[in-house]
Amino acid sequence: MKAGQLLATLNDADAKLRVRDRQTALQLAERQFQRFNTLAQRSAVSKSEMDVQRANRDAAATALKIAQEELQFLSLRAPFDGVIARVQARNHQVVAAGQPIALLTRADLLDVIFTLPETLFTSLDIQNINYQPEVQFNALPGRFFTAQYKEHTSQTDAATLTYQVVLTMPRPADLPGVAGLSGSVRVRLHNLPNAPAQPLLVVPAAAVFNPDRSPTNQPHVWLVEQDGEVLRIKDRPVEVGRLTAQGIEIISGLKPGDRIVAAGVGELRDGEAVRIWQRERGL
């Protein structure tokens, strides 16, 4: 599969009808606006009547844009080049929001998922560039590969009291191109780094994410900025330090006083309008 290639689509008959209906409504509103504009040049209609026609045209254009976006949301496209490892839905099956449809694996990179106990997780500097775990695959015995930190869960598993950690690395050329391969991760416990010489910014672990589109898997945060009378988010790359019990240290990319999104980062898009959530009593 190539990036952008169609993977699956929902029944879009109703959505296409809405798009055509709103295209017709926009054309009608545009013609009506032009007629009133011609009359306005002859002073045959009032300014308030022109404002109404302009508002009708703009509302029709907005309605069409919303319908077109809804139609696009019915199509699932590959976010990167890769191979479909598993199909998890059948043709004409009714699916729910958030339900997995297919498992797509990258052809150039792979993720290594393992767990760490709570006591070890808070002390290891798994993101330090000089402190990279080594990965061995059972399919390639005797060979170790250096991996880099990508992300981790912010809560422990209720049953095992462990954190899930995800590393990323280039896919070895002779590694079978399938998902779910087993192996082991070697972590050096004797190379724990010293604490930083000066205080660093610490943000919640859930605020840091690694977008799949990033070729270097650089960590990012959503920076909240003022845009006139509204607040909008901006994708901001950051350099991270150690993972502590309080959160992730930010070495560069943020400064004191910056506002960031602390939860739900995977549901947002660059430039999206947001508002500050005020914690109420009892919540």
Name some characteristics of this structure.
alpha+beta; 283 residues; conserved putative lor/sdh protein from methanococcus maripaludis s2 fold; Helix Hairpins; MdtA-like_C; three-stranded antiparallel β-sheet; RND_pump_MFP; 30% strand; 3 domains; Elongation Factor Tu (Ef-tu), domain 3; efflux transmembrane transporter activity; 21% helix; 17 strands
Named at the architecture level, the CATH assignment of the largest domain is Beta Barrel
CATH top level class name of the largest domain? Mainly Beta
Number of helices: 3
Kindly report the average pLDDT value: 85
> Helix content range of the residues, please?
10-25%
Decide which structural class fits the backbone.
alpha+beta
Order of helices and strands: EHHEEEEHEEEEEEEEEEEE
Q: How many discrete domains?
A: 3
Assign the CATH topology of the largest domain: Elongation Factor Tu (Ef-tu), domain 3
End-to-end separation in angstroms reads 45 Å
Strand order of the largest sheet: 16-12-13-17
What is the C-alpha radius of gyration, as a whole number of Å? Answer: 26 Å
Question: Which regions contain 5 or more consecutive residues with pLDDT less than 50?
Answer: 191-197
Largest sheet: 4 strands, antiparallel
Strand content: 25-35%
- The outline comes out as extended
Q: Count every beta strand, where a strand is a DSSP E run of 2 or more residues.
A: 17
Protein name: Probable efflux pump periplasmic linker ttgA
Organism: Enterobacter agglomerans
GO molecular function, one term: efflux transmembrane transporter activity
Family: Belongs to the membrane fusion protein (MFP) (TC 8.A.1) family.
